[in-house]
Every structure is written in C-alpha cells, then in structure tokens.
Sequence to fold (226 residues):
Amino acid sequence: MAEANSYEEQRRRRVKDNKCKLDELGLHNLSADAVRQAAAKQWRSCILVYLLPQTKLVKPRNPVMDVPTRRSGRIANIAEQPSYRPAETQRNGPVYATKEERAYAITKAEELKDQLGSGHPAFIKPMSHGYATKSDSLKIPMNFRQHLPVHDEMMVLVDEMNNEFHLLYSFKKHRADHYNHRINQWKGFAAEHELADGDCLVFQLIESRKFKVYIFRASSYNKNDH
Fold:
C-alpha cells in the first residue's frame, strides 16, 4: 500500500513539473493559436470553393484517336451499297409530283388498261409517296377481289424487262363484307424500280398467280409534248 502511495506521489510531481516547464516555454498558448489558425484557414478554403465558379475539366485530346478509322481487311474491298432513291430525294428530302404529273401518269395507265382488253383482268394503282418509298405492302383495289385467292400464297410480279419477283400475297377478312387483299414485301420491288410519288402502275393478271406490271412515270410529263 505504501508503494502505491509513493508511485502516485511521484506521478503527480512529474505532471506538476511538466506543467511548469510548458508555462515557462509558452507552449500552451502556442498550441491554442495553432488550432485557431488551422480552423480559420479551413474556413477560408470552404468560402472560396463556394464562391468561385465551377470549371469543367477538359480531357486532353489523344492524337491517336484523331486518326481515321481503318476498315477491316475483310470488307475493305467491298463496294458501297447502292442507294435506290433518286438523287434529288437524297439531297433535298421527299419529292412530290404536281397535279399535272399525276394526271399524266394516270391517263397513260388508263389508256394501256383499255388496250389490254378483257381477256386478262387488270387494275391501275397510283403511287403515293408512302407506297413509293416507305410501305412494305401494297393494297389491291376492292373491285378486283373476285380475281384473287382467299388465302395467303406467293404471287409473281413480272416487270417490263420480264424480271420476276416472288412476293407474298395476303388475304384478311375483317367483317362479313370487308376484305383486305395485299401484296407484301412491296418495298423491295418499289426500290428496285425506283418508284416515285405520282407514278402509276398497271397490274395485269396474266396467270392465276402472276401479274404483269407496267410503270408510267410522273416525271415523263416534262419530257413529252402534251
């Protein structure tokens, strides 16, 4: 017990001596000043960050990325795919036919239909911008339905160069007296023949599942005497 009291007494004397030395050196005041200065510096930094405008870091350009992309050796020699749209449409947007051009194409189509006679039924189909460039199906007029099958099957379209195109014909019955007859996959045929708004086509049923197709261009109005 006496040893414990002696140790405690020695510890208290060392603490008192150290405190006296700190007072003599002024270290207590120095530590307090350092704490106040550090706090003030941190406060000023926070204010500057808040007040200064935020600037976006710009990533330095990598000169290697500016080099044009190299094409794979496997496709380097493949020719660019052709565009079936007329050059005017590509540059300036859709080109629409005038009333005179439409009337000219329809008149020519009707004249041919009359010349074909009744041995093989035919119908005419004026081209809108949608049918010429966008639609993937072509609706067949209702008054021609008696010549068409009442189920889906393949149809053959033969153009004026005797090239054949095998397209899907679809039949749908919506109501008791309403039917929908369409030639699907039409967009490919229209693109292949560069159809345009105002053109007019004659479809002649030369066989039960084969049409002969004649095309009259609206643009021909400006190339002929009227």
In short: The longest strand covers residues 164-175. The CA atoms of residues 139 and 182 lie 4 Å apart. Residues 81-90 have pLDDT under 50 and may be disordered. DSSP finds six helices and seven strands in the chain.
